[in-house]
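Input record (one chain):
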Amino acid sequence: MKTKQEIEKACQAQAQPLVGKTIRKVQYMSESDCDFMFWNKRPLIIEFTDGSFLVPQMDDEGNDGGSLWFQDKGNDIIIPVI
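The corresponding structure, as predicted from the sequence alone:
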């Protein structure tokens, strides 16, 4: 069985491909894509200049779209699903 530290290290490694990416576009998921995923909530999609993208999910299983918590210069901003 893995320790908490080993699990955290593995999860951190999975996030590393995000480092250094540049955002090209943000837009909400289309209704047709949301229907394809069997989701009721449309999340914001973050697209990077290399064509990769980030889609917030409700949970690890991808049961629905998820919101984002963004903090900028001490201001907390929630980017909701629609």
